[in-house]
Amino acid sequence: MRQLIVLLTILSLTFVVCTRQSGNSLAHIPYRPTPATLKKPDRQPDMLIPADNPLTVEGIALGRKLFYDPILSADSTVFCGNCHQQKRGFTDGKAVSTGFAGRKGVRSAMSLVNVGFHTQGLFWDGRAATLEAQAVHPVQDTVEMNLDWRMAEQRLQRHDNYPILFRQAFGIKNRSEITQDLVVKALAQFQRTLVSRDAKFDQVQRGEAQFTEAEARGYAIFFDTSDELPHSECGHCHVDPLFATPAFENNGIQAVQGLHDFADAGRGTITGNRYDNGKFKVPTLRNIAQTAPYMHDGRFKTLDEVLDHYASGGHFADNLSPNVRQLRLGERDKQDLIAFLHTLTDSVLLNNPAFANPF
Amino acid sequence: MKKLLFALVLVSMLFVTDSCNEDKAAPEQTGVVELVFRGSFGNSPLMMYDREYPYAAGMSLRFQLFRFYLSDIILVQQVSPAKKGILGAEIALVDFKDVQSEASAKDGIVIRLENIPAGDYRGLQTGIGISSKLNRTNPGDYDPLHPLSDNYWSAAMGYVFTKIEGNADMNGDGVFDEKLTFHIGGDPFYRDKPFDKAFTVEPDGVTRLEFDVDLRRVLVATPDDFLDFRKVSIDHGGNKNIGNFISDNLANAIRIR
């Protein structure tokens, strides 16, 4: 064992020395990217992957490292994984997230589970079209990581190890070729691998498990499949297998006099369309039991509170989703719905070492 | 004689080969057909959110969503005496969700059919809804931008063919607080729909066929036979009468100009 450690140390030193000896050039390091493939949930369309950023084992590994490295924050204390924690379904358990120097954001951290399948805008307001475009924002956001991208590039270019990893992932020939573009590509590749397809719900769909009586009843209420049970209308917006839709909706949580009175206008701030004010991206319900508090501002602490809100029919506005309407849910109905929601917990994803902090 | 026969065979073969080359050299001439769908509610342009529409029994309506599928869009050629059809598209989604202004209402929803053989046509044949064959598929069979990547109802193992969502002012107080959601799907609600209209597809040309879709006609069959939101404001396929009412009316509500 001792000999092995000595050997590994010598090899590492040789590698570092070789890299430094050759100056900024990385051309001597082999570039043989290994294509990576993903499994998707049943009945889910394929993931749209940009032609200029195909998934590779090396790109994913680099993206994972960057995701968990505070090097991308101004004071080297904040990293993506702070707000997107694996054990919490890639959320942070807070109503609004805390970023650089303890600064508070204005919205809750969204789950990244199955984020690669989303096609019509990321963030609660949909302002980023792709994961690559999305990853630009948190680094430079003064509330989140507060780092100028030029500075981020310089830090990575000067780093002992990152130039090698960028070479292996993207074939750069020189440290100076580490740019924002490649950083966000690597981050996007890692995030595309965060696929959930092994919750109990999936296993039941594949015939590998069975719902309990309460879960089955909750499923029927969730998807409005029985005329003998109350309908909850949940399945219109939380469509399986993602338990989300690409749409933006006003789900009635904000009480307003008119369309210009929303405390947070959400999608409307991006489109300028007043009928988009108060609308937010429909989030996934996968791992919902791990992702409290709920809504874009984390106003609901428990699933009971969420169901009470929906049962009330929500606050009226001209753009309130017609699918949010008063429900006749009894206490047993609510508890069975919650039992069903727990079947969306994917412990395989929550414990997958491939998604864990590598440091 | 033997040599002459051999030479003739050789010449014939050359001729045949040459003819084949001629076929390859002259590919079929094609053009584009654009189907333009403009929504209305009676005599008013159909716009989501931004317009109020008077309805039966003193009610008023606003809409947030109106979409429906077309399957097996076949262009019927003017070949006498037998009809011959060209499949223009296996599936298309006519979606008025983003029609929220007079300008976009005027533009309409455009379905573009490419590589249509040039020539004379006598009309179209299509299905309103999703054909039985395609309704056996699911979004996992398609790429994310395909019309069938969405609107799937897994619990029913099929697609929602037609969605109408909006709000009603039931009592004239100006508040549209009654929510309306009608989602219709399932093989029994598929309707065949022919459109008689002569048109010509020019080589490399674009032929536009214009359709009017009257949402009022979908909800009102006759002055005495309409979807009464005082009695029902929601249906997701459970009520066959409503499903048939909307499906029949939708087939009648689409007209070619």
Question: What is the makeup of the main sheet of chain B?
Answer: 8 strands, mixed
End-to-end C-alpha gap of chain A: 22 Å
Portion of residues within helices of chain A = 25-40%
Helix content of chain B: 10-25%
Would you count the extended β strands of chain A for me?
2
Strand content of chain A: under 5%
- The overall pLDDT average of chain B reads 90
Lateral arrangement of strands in the main beta sheet of chain A: 1-2
Number of helices of chain B: 4
H/E element order of chain A: HHHHHHHHHEHEHHH
Q: Which two chains have the most extensive interface, and how many residues on each?
A: A-B, 34 and 35 residues
The largest β sheet of chain A comes out as: 2 strands, antiparallel
The helix-strand sequence of chain B is HEEEEEHEEEEEEEEHEEEHE
Strand portion of chain B: 35-45%
What does the overall shape of chain B look like?
A: globular
Low-confidence stretches of chain A: 16-21
Quaternary organisation: heterodimer
Total helices of chain A: the number is: 13
Number of DSSP strand runs of chain B: 17
The average pLDDT of chain A is: 93
